[in-house]
Amino acid sequence: MKSETIVAQIEKNATRLSTPDDLDLLVEAAGDARYVLLGEASHGTSDFYTWRAELSKRLIAEKGFTFIAVEGDWPSCYSLNRYIKNQPDADPTPRAAMQAFNRWPTWMWANAEIIELSKWMREFNSKRSPEQKTGFYGLDVYSLWESMEEVIRYLERTGSPELAQAKRAFECFEPFKRNEQSYGLSASFFSQSCEDEVVQLLMNLHNNRNFGMQDAEAALSAEINALVAVNAERYYRAMIQSGPDSWNIRDLHMVETLQRLTKFHGPYTKAIIWEHNTHIGDARATDMARAGMINIGQVLREQNREEDVFTIGFGTHRGTVIAGRSWGAPMEEMPVPPAEKNSWEDLMHRAGSFDKILMLGPGNPYFQSVIGHRAIGVVYHPEDERGNYVPSRMAQRYDAFVYIDETKALDPLVLEVVHA
């Protein structure tokens, strides 16, 4: 389909986005789903966080959503979750809780935008019973060492009989001195794997978890930290090999963590997921499928009824962003140049240089063409971003799209960074 035809259809079907009241369209369209997936075109754009926060607040307050789950590490997000729920052991302020976000890239969750959301969630929870409080959890797989430490702390605190087993399991990792690459090389090429030990520990923690205990969420946290250890072990082993396995292990871990959270919160659970567009937008509608890659958006659609999953992509034409020049490099505020000609973002801009919402959905006949769609990572080179465009059938990838014409960078907190 010609670009002019697509632009005309965007002009005809888009809704202007100016205030939170303009989100009514999305609240009503997504409000009855069990899983609402909110994307972002980068991990360093303020507007994506603030609009996702506004939409999440309304879904929580008006549609009864149970928790927000994000592309972040479980231990650090759990620290913020305890603050949001005002638990006895919680940090007194969100800024204090965010000291746990010390793994690069810290800015993804330690930022002023999340501080404002966490304050709102804490205030909202103050009027609700403990079992009704809305949570904030991390779905990612990177926190191998931190998660092992959290399991040990929990088992020591509770006097659990699994403590000795956990210490034996984690002793297997000690020779690698918190170096994931060293472990991956050893496990892949010298068969020095710790998989059996951590899998058995996870099974025991799950089977022996007391669902009726006073702080059942703390027991769940220990179990998910053990799950992180299991899947992080597999992830770092797979990273040494070429191919899609490490990506798929990571996204399947996020699905499994989400499933355990959903089961824990009960049959009427409704979840909001915040992740990059590359994770929440259906991989089958992109060139990821040809590479053998799946993602959480695809798997949730495959596992659930069509009406139970609602996916919203986010993008921009130009602006600024927080990112690093290489993995572990200092964060910088960088320019986001105007979108490439005839990319999705360029077409949205040509349909009107203002913020807008566009309803999509797989049955939409006008947005089925394969179009480049920008994806910015935590490592970014704005002067050479031609390879940052993912060929996508937008109506197949998302149910709706939020377009911000000009965006600005996140407002990050400055923390002491632990380099992965």
From TrEMBL:
Which CDD domains does UniProt cross-reference here?
A: Ere-like
Record key words, sorted:
Methyltransferase, Transferase
- Which SUPFAM superfamilies does the record associate with it? EreA/ChaN-like
Could you tell me which InterPro entries the record lists for this protein? Emycin_Estase, Hydrolase/PRTase-associated, UCP036794_erythomycin
What GO terms describe the biological role, i.e. biological process, of this protein?
A: methylation; response to antibiotic
Q: Which GO terms describe its molecular function?
A: methyltransferase activity
Question: Could you tell me what this protein is called?
Answer: Protein-L-isoaspartate O-methyltransferase
